[in-house]
Amino acid sequence: MDLRCRIVAIAVLTTIMAVPVFAANKVEPGFQGVGGKFGEVYECAFPNSVKLDGDLEDFAWQLAGWHFVDNKTGTGPAPNEADASIAFAAVADDKWLYVAIRVKDDKIVRGEEPPGSSWKDDSVEIYIDPNHGETAAYETKNGNWDSQITIPADNIGKDPKKPDLGGTGDGATTGTEVVVVETAEGWDVEAAVPLSSKGKWDINPTDGMVIGFNIHLNDDDDGGDRDHKLIWSKKDVDDRSWTDTTRFADLQFVNLQLSVDAKGKLTTQWARMKANR
Ligand SMILES: [Ca+2]
Ligand SMILES: [Ca+2]
Ligand SMILES: [Ca+2]
Ligand SMILES: [Ca+2]
After folding, report:
1. DSSP states of 130-149
2. pTM for the full model?
3. How far, in Å, from the CA of 5 to the mean position of ligand 4?
4. Which of 88, 94, 203, 235 could, after both became Cys, cross-link 101 (CB 3.0–4.6 A)?
5. Directed axis angle between helix 263-276 and helix 3-17, to 10°?
6. Which one of the ligands is nearest to 106 CA?
7. Tens digit of pLDDT per residue, the chain (277 long)?
8. How far is residue 246's CA from residue 136's CA, in Å, rounded to a whole number?
9. Domain spans of the chain?
10. 220 CA distance to ligand 1 centroid (A)?
11. In the CATH hierarchy, which top-level class contains the domain 3-263?
């Protein structure tokens, strides 16, 4: 494909896929159908990189699968999707597991609590069980170490390399970097969880490999305690992921470069998008 064609192709793809469509719980498959099953498994395409800047227009995000968690799913449902709902995607390269979370929220409440208690403010949580141990208590051995990485909205405008993080299993010391930005409908999170976290885990993605994984949203709209709690994993019916990894769902690595460099791949992608419109 020559450069001009490629630019046109990127422009078309960006126009069509720039903003994920929020809807009742569902999976919007990405490139070549990669996506997974809602609440059960997220299919994470690798090796793919993104620029960690809070802008979710990266090509990898356009072509990744997106899961949409509606306002009713979790132990603290919200009245409507504009009040609280999330869409998320993940990709990985050789150093990082990148997670994009688009949050719809009608009122941002930030900075009321210290990072360790940021689950009472607006925050998202990424859960990692690196050895897929599915243990009832968090493991604390190198390689098996389980973590809840809590990312408060209070990171808006802060240094990505020095984020305020919380979470059990020492989530704050995993080496995770984040950019959080305010949007017209709420806030976006672009996070990079290191695949190698000293003393905790050393994840080397291979095709088909599975780790434990979950995504939560805490929504506070009026100060004090949180008002809504949304949960992706179907197994986490009682909001116990902070201490019990049997509540996690799965993340499965899929060896798939999200690229339109090859003419055949681009044709396939266009056909899929046309079929879905
Ligand atoms: Ca980006
Ligand atoms: Ca809200
Ligand atoms: Ca574990
Ligand atoms: Ca809020």
Report:
1. TT----SS---STTT--EEE
2. 0.88
3. 43
4. 88
5. 30
6. 2
7. 455 555 555 554 544 454 455 667 999 999 889 999 999 999 999 999 999 999 999 999 999 999 999 999 999 999 999 999 999 999 999 999 999 999 999 999 999 998 889 999 999 999 999 999 999 999 999 999 999 999 999 999 999 999 999 999 999 999 999 999 999 999 999 999 999 999 999 999 999 999 999 999 999 999 999 999 999 999 999 999 999 999 999 999 999 998 765 444 444 444 444 444 3
8. 6
9. 3-263
10. 26
11. mainly beta
